[in-house]
Input
Amino acid sequence: MATYSSYKKVDGSQLASQTLSDNDLSDNTLNNFGVKWFFGIPCRCSPGCCCNWTVPANVCRMTIELWGAGGNGSGSCTCSRCHHFQAAAGGTYNTKSLATKGGCTYSVCAAGVYRCYSRECTACNGCTSYVNGYNLSGFCACGGTTGRANTGWSTGCFGTMQYCKAPGNNNGDMAIDLPTPGWSTASGYCHCHPQEIRQGAAPVVSSWSFQGLRQCWIKCGCWAVPYTGGGQSAMNTFCGSSCCGQGGTGGPGLVRITYI
Output
C-alpha cells in the first residue's frame, strides 16, 4: 500500500526564497558530504600516491580535481661556459564533475616525480595524475614541461603555453595550464653573474619559486619544491668547473575528490 512518504517529493523550485535555514535541517542531512586528498611525500624523488578508492555509502555526485607533477630542472650540460636557462613548468590542472554510486571504486593516482636528477640540457617532463573508474575514463592532468638550458644568447626568448589547455581536454570539464617561464636574461661567455630564474607553478594550489646565483662555479638544483611546482635547475656563473651540476625533481602531483 502506498504511503504519503513513498510518493511525496519536494522540488527545490517549489520552495520560496529564504524559507529554510540550517536550523531547519536535521544534523545528518549532509552526513555523506566529504573531501578526500591523495598525495605523496613532499620531497625530491617522491613516489606519489596511487591506490583504489571506494565511494562512501549514499553518495551520488562528486567533483575530482587533478594536478600533474612539476617538470624536472635541467642540468648544467657543459662545464666550459655559462648557460642560458628556461625553468621547468608546474603541473597542469584538470577537473571533472560526475554522477556516481556508493560502493563504486576508482583507481586514483597522484603523480610521483622522475626518480633521478637530470644532468642533460633538456630534462624530463613531469608525470601525469589520473582517476579512472565507474562512469569515468581517460581523465588526467599532464605533468609540467621540462627545464632547459643552452649556451646560445642570440635568440629572443619568451614564456610559452606548452599545452594550451581548454574545456574537454583529457576528458575533463576544465583543464588549465600556466605559461612556461621565459628564458633567463643574464649574458656573457665565462662571466655571466648574476643569474636568476623563476620555476613554474600549477594553477590554484602552487606558488612560484625563485632561484638565483650571484657568483659561483656551479650550483645544483638541490632544494625540494612545493607540490606540483617546477624543479630547480643547475646554474653556473664561471667557466672551468671540474663538474657539471644536476637539476632537481619537480613537486609531486595532487588529487582532491569532493563528494556528496
About this structure: The first helix runs from residue 4 to 7. The two ends are 32 Å apart (CA to CA). The mean pLDDT is 79. The CA atoms of residues 115 and 217 lie 26 Å apart.
